[in-house]
Design a protein that fits this description.
Structural class: mainly alpha
CATH architecture of the largest domain: Up-down Bundle
Number of strands: 0
Distance between the termini: 43 Å
CATH topology of the largest domain: I/LWEQ domain
Length: 393
C-alpha cells in the first residue's frame, strides 16, 4: 500500500459497533470517584452553601462526562490515538475529582486546569473525527467556543471567592453546558442504542456510589439499628433502579430510535438523556448524603440539610422521571409526580423522627409508587417485557 493511501496515525475512525466497549466502562469508573467526592463535599460542609457548591461541581463534571459519552457515539474508542487521548483524559478527570473537596478553596486552580485538559482532549478528538463531515465540524466548532469560555471562567473563579466565585461557576456552567443545547443540533451523529445504554450504565454507577455511601457512613458497632438502616438504604437504591430499568429505559430507547435522524433525534437525545439524566444522578448523590448521615447518627433525627438531601434527592429523581417520560412519550407520569410531592411533604417529619425511620418512610413512598404502577399498568408492562424478550431472542 502506498504511503498516501495509509491511514494517518493521528486520526479517528467512525464507530460501527453500537455496544459499549470495555474502554468506555473503564473511563466511566473515574466518574465513581467524582460522585463520591461530591457526596463527601456535601458531608464536610452540610450547609446550603455547601450543597449548592457540590451540585455546581457535579454539574460541571457531568458536562465533562457527557462530552465523552457524545464523543464515543461518533468515533471508535479502540483506535490508538483515541485510546491514548482517553487515558490522558481519565488521568485529568481523576485529578479534577481529587480536587473536588477544595474546588472552591485551595484546589480551585488544580480543578480548573484538570477539567480544562479533560475538555481539550475531548474537543481535539471531536475535531479529528469531523475532518470529512462539514455539519459535524460546525457543531464541534460551536462546542469548542462554549468549552473555551467555560474553562476560562473556571480559571477566573479560582482567583476569586465568595459570591463572585459562585457567580463565575454558575456562568461557566451555563455557557459550557448550555450553549450546545441552543445551537448546531443537526450536525451530531447518534447511535441510539449505544447512547441510551451509556446513560443507563452511568445511573448504575451512581446507584453503586450510593451503596458505597452506606458502607462508609458508619464506624459504629454493627447492631440491629445499623443493619436495619443498611437494608433500608439498599432497598431505596433497588427501588430507584426498578423505576428506571424495569420498562422505562426500554420505552425511551425505542422512542429515540424511532425519531427522525438529524435534528429531531439529536434534540430528543439532548433533552431526555444529556439534560434530564443529570437531575437523576444529582438526586441519587443527594440521597447518598442522607443515607451517609443516617449511618453516622443512627439514633438521632437528621439535620436540616441531610434531611432535605434525603427526601429532596429522591423527589428530584422522581421529578426527573416525570420530565423524561414527558419528553420521550408525551405522557404525564402521575404516580411519580404524586410520589415526589409526597416525599417533599415528608420533610417536617424527617427532621423530627430517628433518621432510620425517615429512611423507612422514603422507601415506603417508593414502594407505593412501584406497586401502584405494577397494578395500574400491568398489561402495558407485560407487552413491553414481551417485546424486550423477543428482541433479545
Amino acid at each position: 500500500m502506498e504511503a498516501s493511501a495509509r491511514t494517518p496515525r493521528l486520526t479517528a475512525t467512525r464507530r460501527r459497533d453500537a455496544r459499549v466497549t470495555a474502554l468506555e466502562l473503564f473511563f466511566d469508573l473515574v466518574f465513581v470517584l467524582a460522585l463520591t467526592q461530591c457526596t463527601a463535599l456535601m458531608a464536610k460542609d452540610p450547609t446550603w452553601q455547601g450543597l449548592v457548591r457540590a451540585l455546581l461541581v457535579l454539574a460541571v463534571l457531568w458536562g465533562g462526562w457527557g462530552g465523552y459519552a457524545g464523543l464515543t457515539r461518533v468515533i471508535d474508542p479502540g483506535g490508538g490515538a483515541v485510546r491514548l487521548a482517553m487515558f490522558a483524559a481519565m488521568a485529568a478527570f481523576l485529578v479534577a475529582a481529587l480536587s473536588v473537596p477544595g474546588a472552591f478553596g485551595d484546589d480551585a486552580l488544580a480543578f480548573a486546569c484538570a477539567y480544562g485538559i479533560v475538555r481539550i482532549a475531548h474537543i481535539w478528538l471531536f475535531t479529528l473525527s469531523s475532518r470529512e463531515d462539514p455539519d459535524l465540524r460546525q457543531s464541534v466548532l460551536g462546542l469548542s467556543v462554549g468549552t473555551a469560555i467555560g474553562v476560562g471562567l473556571l480559571l477566573g473563579a479560582s482567583a476569586a471567592d465568595g459570591y463572585v466565585q459562585g457567580g463565575l461557576w454558575a456562568l461557566a456552567l451555563l455557557i459550557d453546558v448550555g450553549l450546545p443545547f441552543l445551537f448546531f443540533a443537526e450536525g451530531w451523529r447518534l447511535m441510539t442504542s449505544h447512547f441510551a445504554e451509556r446513560h443507563g450504565l452511568i445511573l448504575i454507577i451512581a446507584l453503586g456510589e450510593s451503596i458505597v455511601a452506606i458502607g462508609v457512613g458508619s464506624d459504629a458497632v454493627v447492631d440491629g439499628a445499623v443493619v436495619a438502616a443498611a437494608i433500608l438504604g439498599v432497598g431505596i437504591a433497588a427501588a430507584l433502579w426498578w423505576l428506571y430499568f424495569d420498562v422505562t429505559v426500554w420505552l425511551a430507547e425505542e422512542r429515540l430510535a424511532r425519531a427522525a435522524p438529524g435534528r429531531e433525534q439529536n434534540e430528543l437525545a439532548r433533552d431526555a438523556y444529556s439534560l434530564l439524566h443529570f437531575p437523576m444522578v444529582a438526586g441519587i448523590v443527594l440521597a447518598a448524603l442522607g443515607l451517609k448521615s443516617t449511618l453516622a447518627h443512627i439514633d438521632d433525627p437528621l439535620e436540616e440539610v441531610p434531611a432535605v438531601a434525603l427526601v429532596g434527592g429522591v423527589a428530584l429523581y422522581l421529578l426527573a422521571h416525570v420530565g423524561f417520560k414527558l419528553r420521550t412519550s408525551r405522557a404525564l407520569s402521575v404516580p411519580r409526580l404524586v410520589g415526589a410531592i409526597g416525599l417533599v411533604l415528608l420533610y417536617p417529619l424527617a427532621v423530627e423522627v430517628r433518621s432510620v425511620v425517615a429512611v423507612a418512610l422514603v422507601l415506603a413512598v417508593l414502594c407505593a409508587v412501584i406497586v401502584y404502577e405494577l397494578v395500574k399498568y400491568a398489561d402495558t408492562r407485560r407487552d413491553v417485557r414481551s417485546q424486550i424478550h423477543a428482541a433479545h431472542e
